[in-house]
UniProtKB/TrEMBL annotation:
PANTHER family: 4-NITROPHENYLPHOSPHATASE-RELATED (PTHR19288), PHOSPHATIDYLGLYCEROPHOSPHATASE GEP4, MITOCHONDRIAL (PTHR19288:SF25). It comes from Limosilactobacillus coleohominis. Gene3D superfamilies: HAD superfamily/HAD-like. This is YqeG family HAD IIIA-type phosphatase. It comes from the Bacteria. InterPro entries: HAD-like_sf, HAD-SF_hydro_IIIA, HAD_sf, PGPP1/Gep4.
Amino acid sequence: MIAKFKPTWMVDTVYNISPTQLKEHGIKAVLSDLDNTLIAWNNPNGTPELRKWMADLHQAGIPLIVVSNNSAKRVSKAVRNLNLPFVSRSLKPLSFGITTARKRLGLKKSEVVMVGDQLMTDMLAANTAGVRSILVKPLINTDKWDTQINRFFEKFVMKDLQKKYPNMKWQEDLND
């Protein structure tokens, strides 16, 4: 059961995931959580690093789609300045949102990766959907109240994962 939470990779930040490395792994599209993965949950404007990473993905022909549990109104407002497509009310940890985004792109499971900052939602949803995943560290150390509950339980899940998979470690990038 604990394997359902295991990420394929653990990378410090989304900005370190290079399009070249994604292509080396056969990845043609990135699906990403929104809050504390792409943007700080309390700062929807994003950062210059995010905009550069998005431009690098675009230049490499790798689409980026936000897969969020938030409402369409909330996600639309958050990504308006970033001009990103999205799937709202994705029902993570269920696979619904990931599968919807993948099918929208017409890609196989092996051709997409889900990026997120939570084991309990993002990684579990990716594994349930049968796609690879990248766990990133949250952009900031504060969360909305509902996410704080997940973070509490996540500590125990991470401890069990590291016990079962001792080689599981944070990496600088996908090839570290």
